[in-house]
Write a structure and sequence with these properties.
Number of helices: 7
Radius of gyration: 20 Å
Order of helices and strands: HHHEHHEEHH
Strand order of the largest sheet: 1-3-2
Length: 173
């Protein structure tokens, strides 16, 4: 058996007082939440170093994934993040002011625009991803290669099960 962690200590306090609670499930959920909080804090810190917030970083990532020439419509971006067009406009305004994106006339719609990722935006996004990736190494540092693959497989099954239950997939970027 491995050494007890902070979650084990919390769950030990529940033994006997919550008889209907599946403590194994609670352990899984608590550990995922614990790691998510640490990762999110690190991400916020990383993005602050690059003058971004999570929403802005996600927009840059969406444009990067669009492939060369790194363009999408504001409507496509808003829909992919479940945002109103007004909320997306605010993000785009900030990114444009920072000279990370630009708006171009839509060649197919005189009233529309296309959002393009500028080279500076691509560079900032890639540097932020690299910095965050280096910080995230702690997550799997206690696992060997086989265990990492096994954990990924198990987590994938959990994600599929959650999706089947109707949980919407969250989009970060």
């Amino acid at each position: 058996m491995t050494e007890p962690d902070i979650v084990d200590k919390r769950i030990a306090d529940w033994v006997g007082s919550l008889p209907g609670l599946d403590l194994e499930v609670e352990g899984i959920v608590e550990r995922i939440q614990h790691l998510e909080k640490r990762i999110r804090k690190m991400l916020d810190d990383t993005l602050a170093e690059f003058g971004l917030n999570v929403g802005e970083w996600a927009v840059l990532g969406s444009l990067r994934r669009a492939g060369d020439p790194y363009r999408r419509s504001p409507g496509q971006l808003a829909k992919s993040f479940g945002l109103t067009t007004g909320a997306m406009t605010n993000r785009l305004d900030k990114l444009e002011a920072a000279e990370l994106i630009r708006r171009l006339p839509d060649p197919d719609d005189r009233r529309g625009v296309i959002v393009e990722l500028l080279p500076e935006g691509r560079e900032v996004w890639e540097r932020a991803v690299g910095a965050q990736s280096a910080k995230e190494q702690f997550v799997a540092s206690g696992l060997n290669e086989r265990e990492r693959k096994q954990l990924n497989s198990l987590l994938r099954r959990m994600v599929h099960a959650a999706e089947r239950e109707g949980e919407p997939a969250a989009t970060l970027g």
